[in-house]
Amino acid sequence: MGHRNFRYYFLGQVVSILGTWIQQVAMSWLVYRLTGSVALLGVTTFAALVPMLVVGPLAGAWIDRHDKRRLLILVQGLLALQALALGVLTMLDLVGPSLLVLMSVMLGVLNAFDTPLRQSQINSFVGSREDLPNALALNAMAFNSGRFLGPPLAGLLLGLTSEAFCFVLNAVSFAALAFGVWRIRVEASPRASGSTASVFREGLGYVWDAYAIRTLILILAVANLTASSYAVLLPVFAKDVFSGDARMLGMLWGAAGAGAFVGTVFLATRKNLPGLVTVVVSGAAIGALALLVFSYSRFLPVSLLAMAMVGLGISIGNVATNMLLQTLAPDHLRGRVVSFFSSTRFGFDAIGGLLAGLLAARVGAQRAMLIEGLVLAVFAVWALRTRGRLRADVARRI
């Protein structure tokens, strides 16, 4: 926080992320309230996230060829327009399943550019490679503080106002980050030369040839394919298992956010980068165990604790992976490496959410979460066995 540029970015990020979480909870509640379809919850989540998997890697190559700071300000404006349009359409009762899916796709395409733009510039905002891991942990802390505070606030707002109000509020929140980035004074980062296709191939070759990076991304993919599916199923648990309303959904989301926030506070104190490999693997194991407990529990306090542990496991795994990847990546490849991280993180989250929704429609939400937990538990055992080699390769590359 001693870096002026990072302070401007961080404060704007906090406001923007809070608005984003409010919209996400409002969106899931709107879908389930209008349709009662758990499958559509999975479809809309998939539509919002799958562009990260499809567009994300190419977006990383494209943004490495342009001025990232100006692009980030532009993308904030487009995200604000998307949220405002969704709010107005909801206010006029013009939303239906098809339109909700379309708006989710638009959001996903914009986020495919927004996420690597935000992440890849943090290094230039702090101006010190030694401070980069801590800056990334603080950035994740901002994300998870919004994840902790946003859902309960969204539940309160939904009880007092409407989904449309939440969407409009999110539109306003993007101005905070745009203003913060506008105030930043930093030299433009070097731009990659060549066509977008050749720049993409260069980044893909680097990721594939480096054992540590390839393995970290594999762990990231499986963990988010399974553990992150809870997001799609929470409205079902809130309404059908615990007989609650939007406030109950906000409590469950908030519990996951609280666990995630604790995880990022823990990571902000870590200085031993090879030791983060153990954190990544432990995150998968914690997430698996917590999913299994949550799928069986009918006692709300136990379920809230289990959901907090799910959030903790996902958070420490994802953030520690990001810290390692960005530290290992050369400066000229960072945008592309970050895009592979974000496309895997959110793309496999999208696939997992779709599968969880479809599975829950056939066997029920509780059994679906049980299956997800069992799959992740088996994978976590494999990851534990590869930890030694992975840690050695990370230590060699630092």
Automatic annotation (TrEMBL):
Keyword hit for Protein biosynthesis: no
InterPro entries, alphabetized: MFS_dom, MFS_trans_sf, TM_effector
Predominant cellular place of this UniProt entry's protein: membrane
TM annotation in the entry: 9-32, 38-59, 71-89, 156-182, 216-238, 250-269, 276-296, 302-325, 337-361, 367-384
Source species, domain of life: Bacteria
Keyword presence, Iron-sulfur: no
GO CC annotations on file: plasma membrane
Localization per Swiss-Prot or TrEMBL: Cell membrane
Residue stretches making up the Major facilitator superfamily (MFS) profile domain: 5-391
Protein's name in the database: Putative integral membrane efflux protein
